[in-house]
Amino acid sequence: DVKVTQSSRYLVKRTGEKVFLECVQDMDHENMFWYRQDPGLGLRLIYFSYDVKMKEKGDIPEGYSVSREKKERFSLILESASTNQTSMYLCASSSGQEGADTQYFGPGTRLTVL
Amino acid sequence: GNSVTQMEGPVTLSEEAFLTINCTYTATGYPSLFWYVQYPGEGLQLLLKATKADDKGSNKGFEATYRKETTSFHLEKGSVQVSDSAVYFCALGHYSSASKIIFGSGTRLSIRP
Question: Best mutation site among B5, B45, B92, B100 for testing chain A: the one with the most A CBs within 10 Å?
Answer without folding.
Answer: B100
